[in-house]
């Protein structure tokens, strides 16, 4: 079994996979909608507005490298949304190497990003293929803002804040609890330094009077993307949702993990965390409403003699993720990435180009820039 479609979206039974398919339809890209439960994938895809105008096929496949390679053979790009990625991602990455396809995902797991770089970075680069975990609103839009903040030069430190209004999807909730088992890092003078998992901060939010609560959120991807960037020596990234009650609950859960779950055996840890995650979000969330679901990405860049602050206001953060994935796939069908192997969305496609797409689809505002 193989496909004539150039793009595979794996994990379409979830909300983010559906949105990627929606934007691939708008960009006119033929695609395979794949997942472990074909009936569920079909149910999700057939509810996409205008799906009758799309060129697509549905594939049911087990999360096994050989089975995935056989099902996806012929595709040039795989967009993976089946998380937690540290649990389900290795088979997809291996399948991409076998068939010579670019790999992208939407991860928020810093340990998976590090594992991807160390395990497959060189192999993908040798084949001229892109390995880009973490192409998603919560990481890419703030990375765009960070690059804009760095444009004048002379800055060496990034202070990144990502906040949004809404509720995590089922897969995102599973990831949030999975990362509690991992080590998290920030970048300090070119060294990755472990975070205290219980860290939490009251933060001022551009455009809002009320303060919000932000946490390291697994360390985020930014310290890894900028780790070997000669412009930058220190990066801290924190984030969360613009709902204090929810974030207070996150803090309580972290404390509970540290005191009650962490001492358990690994299998017991995983079961306990999965049970908590399922109790919080077991269904697909309601479709985003731009009047309600908003995002704020704020980045301070600083150096010995200067300061730069960039804010990008947006809406519908999961739609932002869907578009970023779809455009990245569309771009890879037209030309090679700017950087092969392990690379972020901005490194592979250009931060101004990604910003232009988000602006064109009405998902983010023009960046607000202050320099001192």
Give structural notes.
The chain is built from 13 helices and 16 strands. The chain has 372 residues and is α/β, with parallel strands linked by helices. It folds into 2 domains: 7-134 and 318-363, Rossmann fold (3-Layer(aba) Sandwich); 137-317, Dihydrodipicolinate Reductase, domain 2 (2-Layer Sandwich), CATH 3.30.360.10. The strands form 4 sheets. It has a 7-stranded parallel sheet with strand order 3-2-1-4-5-6-15, with helices on both faces. It has a 5-stranded mixed sheet with strand order 12-7-13-14-16. A two-stranded antiparallel ribbon has the order 8-9. Helix 4 packs parallel to helix 5 (110-126).
Concise overview:
The chain is of the alpha/beta class and 372 residues long. The protein is 41% helix and 22% strand.
SSE diagram, text form:
Blueprint: E1 7-10, H1 15-27, E2 31-35, H2 38-45, E3 56-60, H3 65-72, E4 77-80, H4 85-99, E5 102-105, H5 110-126, E6 130-132, H6 137-150, E7 157-164, H7 170-178, E8 185-188, E9 191-194, E10 201-203, E11 212-214, H8 222-225, E12 234-241, H9 244-261, H10 266-280, E13 294-303, E14 306-315, H11 317-334, E15 341-342, H12 345-349, H13 351-360, E16 368-371
Helix pairs in contact: 1-11, 3-4, 4-5, 6-13, 7-10
């Amino acid at each position: 079994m193989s496909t004539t479609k150039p793009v595979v979206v794996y994990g379409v039974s979830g909300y983010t996979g559906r949105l990627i398919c929606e934007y691939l339809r708008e960009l006119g890209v033929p695609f395979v909608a794949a997942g472990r439960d074909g009936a569920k994938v079909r149910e999700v895809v057939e509810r996409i507005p205008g799906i009758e105008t799309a060129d697509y096929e549905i594939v049911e496949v087990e999360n096994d490298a050989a089975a995935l390679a056989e099902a996806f053979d012929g595709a040039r790009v795989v967009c993976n949304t089946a998380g937690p990625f540290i649990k389900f991602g290795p088979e997809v990455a291996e399948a991409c190497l076998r068939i010579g396809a670019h790999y992208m995902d939407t991860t928020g797991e810093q340990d998976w990003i590090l594992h991807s770089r160390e395990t497959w970075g060189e192999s993908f680069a040798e084949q001229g293929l892109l390995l880009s975990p973490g192409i998603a609103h919560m990481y890419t839009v703030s990375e765009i803002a960070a690059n804009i903040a760095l444009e004048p030069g002379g800055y060496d430190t990034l202070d990144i804040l990502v906040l949004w209004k809404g509720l995590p999807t089922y897969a995102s909730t599973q990831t949030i609890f999975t990362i509690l088992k991992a080590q998290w890092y920030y970048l300090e003078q070119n060294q990755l330094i472990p975070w205290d998992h219980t860290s939490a901060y009251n933060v001022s939010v551009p455009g809002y009077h009320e303060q919000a609560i932000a946490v390291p959120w697994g360390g985020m991807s930014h310290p890894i993307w900028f780790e070997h960037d000669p412009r930058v020596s220190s990066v801290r990234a924190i984030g969360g949702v613009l709902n204090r009650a929810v974030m207070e609950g996150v803090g309580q859960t972290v404390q509970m993990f540290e005191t009650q779950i962490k001492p358990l055996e690994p299998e017991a840890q995983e079961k306990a965390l999965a049970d908590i995650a399922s109790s919080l979000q077991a269904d697909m969330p309601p479709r985003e409403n731009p009047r309600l679901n908003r995002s704020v990405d704020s980045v301070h860049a600083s150096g010995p003699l200067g300061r730069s602050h960039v804010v990008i206001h947006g809406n519908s953060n999961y739609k932002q993720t869907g578009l970023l994935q779809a455009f990245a796939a569309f771009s890879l069908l037209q030309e090679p990435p700017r950087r092969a192997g392990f690379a972020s969305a901005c490194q592979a496609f250009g931060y101004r180009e990604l910003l232009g797409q988000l602006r064109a689809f009405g998902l983010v505002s023009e960046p607000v820039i202050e320099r001192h």
